[in-house]
Design brief:
The protein has 418 residues and is α/β, with parallel strands linked by helices. The protein is built from 17 helices and 16 strands. It starts with a helix and ends with a helix.
């Protein structure tokens, strides 16, 4: 099987008939638990009801009124942990397939032209946004709908952030992310790609600034032979943008146990690796990946090596030692060294913090930009959202989209005061 065929979307779209049947299963709950479980508070019973009546345009509008990143979130949200996990039908049979129904409505929206909103009358106010990922796009779209002039500065050649570059094709093809970028542009937002901006100059040029810079590359492990190790985000990016030239080993080792590490293992397995092993220094109980992702990758035939700490990368593989957990810490077990054979090693152990905080003299918390409930930073008129502020809780696309909404509302309130 060709690499491109092995990485097509894992979940097929619903047919019109399937969507109608599934939508009629919904109880259309009053004060619905699923809506409360959605970080962006989409009126889920309302959009599903519109699908059941054949009003797909109205269904799409309902979704986008709460979440401008509705197409991406339909594919990548951990619905098992959020809306579907809260569905009242869990107790009876199976939850409504909310994610797939949302995707059905969003696919129709973009196939039919993708335009339901018009910008408000211009306010004369200008806002700069750093980063064209989900938080930045969400904030930009919400501000443009209120009539503000918005410019997004994006250092990459394409907008979309991790939706474009960092979510594997099995979950979201690039075309979906780029369609959302164009929808935001259609609201009058200026998106300057390939733009390295001097962040310190922006507060003097704009009435407000929203930082949605995300995070950086994977941190260093600090072990000998690290130059042999491939960065996980780079590996995933190439699987989306240049898959024909993607090198995949026969015996692949993936360091880490978060969702990105699982994505790396998935790509490796589906693109020809005979054996893929995930190496994690703790146990499955401490894995940062979602439980359903762990179960998914087990079904892909990927092995796990728990309580293993890498100490050296070599041409033969990865030298490790066993560790023993001791409260919040861990201790190497004396004499427990061993070697995991592998011809390719990939690391996915988180990301470094953004350097923009230092450029703007912003207060930080554990390296993340510190913000208040309105997402304002320690510097007046400078706001931030998305992964770059996520010092607590889990980072996700839907949380970034909600941050964009909160940031836009806060900035709008500030700009309308004077």
């Amino acid at each position: 099987m060709a690499k491109t065929e092995s990485l097509t979307e894992a979940v097929p779209p619903l047919t019109v008939h399937e969507a109608l049947v599934e939508s009629t299963r919904c109880l259309y709950c009053y004060d619905a638990p699923c809506t409360h479980a959605c970080p962006t508070h989409i009126d889920i019973p309302r959009f599903i009801k519109k699908i059941s009546s054949g009003n797909l345009k109205g269904s799409g509008r309902t979704i986008l009124e709460s979440n401008l990143m509705g197409a991406t979130c339909a594919r990548v949200c951990p619905v098992e942990e959020l809306c579907e996990g809260a569905c009242v039908l869990n107790a009876e049979e199976r939850p409504i397939s909310i994610g797939r129904l949302q995707r059905h409505a969003m696919d129709h929206f973009y196939a039919s032209g993708g335009n339901v909103f018009q910008p408000a009358k211009p306010t004369g106010r200008k806002v700069a946004i750093i980063g064209a990922g989900p938080a930045g796009l969400s904030c930009a779209g919400e501000l443009a709908r209120r009539g503000h002039a918005v410019t997004i500065f994006e250092k990459r050649n394409w907008g979309g952030g991790l939706s474009t570059y960092g979510i594997i094709v099995l979950r979201e093809p690039i075309r979906v992310a780029l369609a959302e970028v164009e929808m935001i542009r259609s609201l009058g937002v200026t998106i300057e790609t390939g733009a390295e901006v001097n962040a310190a100059e922006l507060p003097g040029r704009f009435d407000a600034v929203f930082i949605a810079a995300g995070l950086g590359k994977s941190p260093q492990l600090g072990i000998p032979g690290e130059e042999r190790i491939v960065d996980g985000l780079t590996f995933i990016e190439q699987s989306k943008t240049d898959i024909q030239n993607l090198h995949v080993g026969r015996n692949v080792l993936v360091i880490g146990a978060g969702n990105t590490a699982i994505d790396c293992a998935t790509v490796a397995k589906r693109c020809g690796a005979n054996r893929v092993t995930m190496v994690y220094r703790r146990t499955e109980n401490e894995m940062p990946a979602y439980r359903h992702e762990y179960e998914f990758i087990q079904n892909e035939g990927v092995r796990f090596e728990f309580l293993a700490k890498p100490v050296r990368a070599t041409a033969e593989g990865l030298e490790c030692v066993r560790v023993a957990l001791n409260g919040a810490g861990m201790q190497p077990v004396p004499g427990s060294g061993f070697v995991l054979a592998g011809d390719q090693i990939i690391k996915a152990i988180g990301q470094e913090k953004t350097g923009i905080a230092a450029a703007l003299c912003l207060a930080t918390e554990r390296g993340f930009i510190k913000v208040n409930a309105q997402l304002e930073t320690s510097v007046p008129r400078v706001y931030a959202g998305g992964d770059c502020v996520r010092a607590k809780g889990s980072a996700s696309t839907v949380m970034a989209a909600q941050d964009g909404k909160i940031g836009a509302a806060s900035i709008h309130g500030l700009l309308m005061k004077g």
